[in-house]
Amino acid sequence: MPLPVTRASASPWLTVVLLCIGQMMIVLDQNIVNVALPAVQRDLGLSSENLVWVVNAYVIPFGGLLLLAGRLGDLFGAKPVFLTGIALFSASSMLCGVATGETFLIASRFLQGMGGAVASACILGMVATTFSDRREQAQAIAAYSFASAGGGAVGPLMGGVLTDLLSWHWIFFINAPIGAALVLVGMRALPGDRGEGMGKGTDFLGSLLVTSGMMLLVYTIVDAERVGWGAAQTLLLGPASMVLLMGFFVRQAMATSPLLPLSLLRSRSLVAANIVQFLMIAGMFGLLFFGTLYLQRVLRYGSLQAGLGFVPIAVVIAAVSLGLSTRLITRHGHRAMLLLGLALIVGAFVMLSFARLDGVYLVDFLPAGLVLGLGFGLAAPAVMGLGTTAVAPTEAGIASGLFNTTQQIGGATGLAVLSAFVSARTRSLDAAGKTEAESLVGAYHVAFLAAAAFTLTALIIGMSLLKATPSADVDRHGMASAGQDASVS
């Protein structure tokens, strides 16, 4: 039975295109900055300790506000919330571009993270409810998956091009015209939705608890690498964030209009999909971050060359996400394609763990990257489909916010844990008398194996919790059935 659709649009595919452009712009910005950091540091005279806050100042509000922003989309309508987020993101991007000092840049990045969270929290829910037909819905979710994955893969390339040919300022300036066009076109082209309104009230205490708890948790994770996992700050703030989040769930059980209806968590598909995505994204950050470092610090590629090295991976993700995955999901179901994709990702990370000190891109990096692109192109649309089709359209905003939250926390946690492994392994190899290059390669091997372990855990959880229902994953016409997404009674 097709899902009901709450939004009507004369051009539903235009809606999907606009939303995917917004998603790609936001994801691009998360990755494009990394390549430009050395240039930012030289130009503004940032210390190494403060340089990391050019990234963290964006990540903390982004991860902390997603759940609240998704609920605001349900209350006030996804369209106005999305456009407001894009407008804030674009305006703060301009502020980042004109920054002449570290304080101004870091503050502008914080605003940019807020805008990115507000816009991004609504996108997946809007994409998932644009179509009622299962095949078209799968195609729309696949396009969203490509926008997310493609933005991550293309980010290093664009960062290298803009920084080398123009300046680091343009990695921010480029967002302004794109965002302005999105707002102007979106005001007319995006379908309007009324939202639930504020008649029933909203859970302001719950909003305060979850936002402060998530921001504190993300801050603790991203700063743990600097101060240490055993430092007093980490040991104090980590449990404090957990107390705030536990208070949030207690509040949700008592509130008349909860921010996150706990009934959502009875959906086995929704909960399992979020856990699987958390682990999958935690592993994928191993490729984006340590893969780039391997190309630059071991193979001695420049920033532009390293960015170009990811282009074939982005092409594979695009081809699979936008074409092959929809047909396979429609024919075999979300669960089967998710498990196949995760298995391929595990294999790709194991392949990367054999990358050599005197390696060759075509042998040591590209084959594994292509396998990983194939796996991610299959797994990402499948896990998003499992998560978004498990809830009613009226709850699409909060489900989208929850999904994006686990994605951001997964990325932050994965990078922090993998970085800790790399640092420990590097010190161990240095103490054993290895050269700098040998220590780096050995440490990256550990990172890739840890990423494989993350993804293997996701595969095991997916096999255990995402069971086929009696109504089957695929009906006799080859279309995914509504029984795909079972919930625990």
From TrEMBL:
Any one of the GO CC terms: plasma membrane
Listed GO MF terms: transmembrane transporter activity
Transferase among keywords: no
Name of this chain's protein: MFS transporter
GO BP, one annotated term: response to antibiotic
Localisation per UniProt entry: Cell membrane
Domain Major facilitator superfamily (MFS) profile: 15-470
Statement: the UniProt record of this protein carries the keyword tRNA-binding: no
Membrane protein topology class: Multi-pass membrane protein
Residue spans crossing the bilayer: 12-31, 51-69, 81-100, 106-129, 141-162, 168-190, 202-222, 228-250, 271-295, 301-324, 336-355, 361-386, 398-422, 442-466
UniProt-listed Pfam families: MFS_1
Keywords noted in UniProt: Antibiotic resistance, Cell membrane, Membrane, Transmembrane, Transmembrane helix, Transport
Species lineage: Bacteria, Bacillati, Actinomycetota, Actinomycetes, Kitasatosporales
InterPro entries found in the cross-reference section: MFS, MFS_dom, MFS_trans_sf
Domain of life, per lineage: Bacteria
Gene source species: Streptomyces haneummycinicus
UniProt main location, coarse: membrane
